[in-house]
Sequence to fold (124 residues):
Amino acid sequence: MASASPSQTKAATASQPVQEAKALQPSDTPSSGEAARFRVALAANCCLLLVGVCGGALLAWWALSFHRSNEQLWMVPVGLVLLGTPVFVWLSIFASGVCTCLELLWTAPAVPRTAPPPDLDPER
Fold:
């Protein structure tokens, strides 16, 4: 019954490029690949935290129960390895992440350098 007026048609076509531009822009929601990477990273960090806590607990147990009698000495190096491993793993992951960021900076297109103006040239 009611037909669209020309002003409504123009408004719809005027907002259409805006909607298309919004569709072309990256969305704020993470993609499924990013979400999977986040879950894997979270699981790895939780496992590393668990290993470190187990190492600390093993050392505490040895210190409270066996230190005075010098028994169960195998618990000391095992506890130190379990306690220290997550620290080195986190440091290596951090270092590799920093290197990746620097690599992205190095591959960025360089801005062409222009010659300084003649009055600012220090050699003259």
